[in-house]
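Complex record, two chains
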Amino acid sequence: MTPAVSSPPLLTIRGVRKAFGATQALGGIDLDIEAGRILALMGANGAGKSTLVNILAGLFPADAGSVRLNGAVFAPASPRAAAVAGIVTVHQATQKVGAAGMTVADTLLLDQFADRHAPLFVSRRSVRRQAARIAASAGFDLPLDRDFGEIGPADRQMVAIARALSAQASVLILDEPTASLSQREAERLFSILEGLRARGLAILYISHRTADLSRLADRAVVLRGGQIVADMARPIDFDRALAAMIGRPIASAHAQARAAAGDPVFDLDGVRLHDDAPPIRLALARGEVVAVTGPLGAGKSRLLATMGGAERLRHGRMRLSGENFAPRSPADAIAAGVVLAGPDRHQSSFVPSDWPGGTVAGTIALPHLKRWFPSGFLVGDRERRAAEDAIARLGIRASGPGARLDTLSGGNQQKVVLARWQAEPAKVLLLDEPFQGVDVGARADIIAALRADRGTATLVATSDPEEALEVADRIFAMDHHGLAPWGAAEGVAA
Amino acid sequence: MTETPLTITSRQQAAGAGRAAPGLFHAVRRGAIFLLLAILGVGFTLAEPAFINFANLMSVLQAVSVVAILGAGITVTLAVGGFDLSVGAVAASSVMAASYAMVVWHLDALETVPLVLAFGALVGLANAFLILWMRVPDLLATLAMNFLLTGLQLIPTAGRSIATGLILPSGDSATGKFDPDFLSIGRAQILGGVPLPVLLMVVVAVVLHVLTEHTRYGRLFFAIGGNEVAARLAGAPTQRLRLSAYVISATLASLGGLIVAARVGRGDVSSGASLLLDSVAAALIGFAVLDRRHPNVLGTVVGAIFVGVLLNGLTMLNAPYYTQDFVKGAVLVGALSLTYGLGRRRL
């Protein structure tokens, strides 16, 4: 399947360094990447993965060192130059692949529209035909006529990958490509990647998901602090890789089930998320952590949004501490003690970092302003103290309460979201995909903080069963807007 | 709105660059507009010593007071992520409304002022209705309102300016007159020579500055403008706060109209002509003040004063009137380039 190891490397990286201000992001990387192999690039947030990828993608040059592609010096001045030379990158953020108002077909052909040598006039039909060819060669079934702004993250991800594949690439870089894909879509992507590997592409695959990596990777390279700290061939020992990544051995990943749960605090009875969905029954007790797992679009977000007042309850009833609970808005739910941290922290929790309130302290304080500043005036140090407490308690790496959020890594940003909702006692804490783009170290800290909170019933939605196993006392599986105990087959009591 | 890993990297880079080359450059950027203001002041004083007279400085402030008040209102709508383009027409139609109330309806100052302010608040509610319930994008809704009011103010008088003796469309002649108490809003001086409009400007600036920067309402305004979904999920009453921003903006615009009417002493149909663009410019120049890069009330007021000083000085130096718009435009382009362009490293 894979070519002989003796073939010369396709991409040779020697002594590459990069510093941002006083921070050394890459401290001398030597790495050979061979054709026809899938190389897993692992590392906690801030380890230097993105910096290395961005250098290869032509976003910025290295400070020192050299990169050779097929023996020729590779120093792209722009992403486009990198793509022309044969290195194509699919970034994690897929909103920027296209724009609302363009069809998916247009998005697939964007590179050609930008090509000065392409014909000036384009007909809808020829666009449609070429786009269909690109989608077919990638093996995806894409909604070509839909507006790019209306399609979901999984479709956007597939559009990005299909477009990348349409270029004549010899190296394909994928950054967390399955983060927003369902299991089935991910499977399809994997078989496509295996096909590309067989065709001789070198694939640099960045992911936090060890399940994906153990399925795909021929080799794993681990970065920490801008250095390569481990380089392992198949079969890859992921426990060792993870230990290298965070710099300490990982404790048993599975949550210890609690001996006794507290009093029941929240229950759903006959709740249906849409008209012909099956009724959901769920009871949460004080001090327990319950996880809901299932593919994207299964209804996890909808369930949490309904419980948190962000969506109207249509059928059935919810009870909080025995009393009927029907929040009309998130504000209602928060006032009753049911708080929701939505999916994608940038969209659901943060204001832009250069905007008032875009600091660690401001982010934590936002829902609590009324309680903390009853006079209306922002006086006193309540806000700063809350942030200092959170920084100390959760080990948030930030320069202080006034630090802008964009100076924090993803894991630390997610800790700030958690700190916001733990700053005041809540009865029920709802977390939608709280581990998105969070490295293992920060994930362990967040899980510890969730499990240490004995006064709150916590419900976590995650599409990654591994995460559910790590965090939860009980796990439910969700599919087609229905909820069922998860586990008999997987060996976990629900 | 969404931060992507890509931009975070570039921001970190920019932040890193800022740390590496700290000090003077940053300080200059923060204080650029004050530095320029000082240079202008010294320059104009050297060229024309009368510039620095208390009376002249007060006349500069009086000239910019209406623009500053309107700009402060726009700033509040910018904070909630909107934009109120109806303030010029609200001010102009308030001039007409005040004049009509006194000249045709024979109301006195105590009745006219609340009536006109209520008219402004009503327009703000109408804007909010269009934006929040009809879901018209704010730029379009308020621009449409601008046209609507610009036309509406002409209808009661059949397009004539309002003064005693005005012939109404019915053929009658209006016999009322401007209440002297009303005129003093625009003309009185207090505290040894400070014009009342300047005092009003200061009061509006201080109140709105405290509201936006030092109260939880202000924090929520900015949270809505920064990320409305996040603000809603954090429990903020987003609809109510956006509504109040438009009501504040339009009410302040009608206050501006009252000042204009009191100063001019007649209902001039063309009185609001340049108010909208001038106050938008002040709000945008305000982004550059102290390198804040977001709407802020003090910045808006400083921006309005800056343009006022520049125009006053140039007028004293006999620069022709027709160069004024060019000067304003140049200041705006410069301020915006300063805010967004310099010191931000490219990817």
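Note: Confidence is low (pLDDT under 50) at residues 1-5, 488-494 of chain A.
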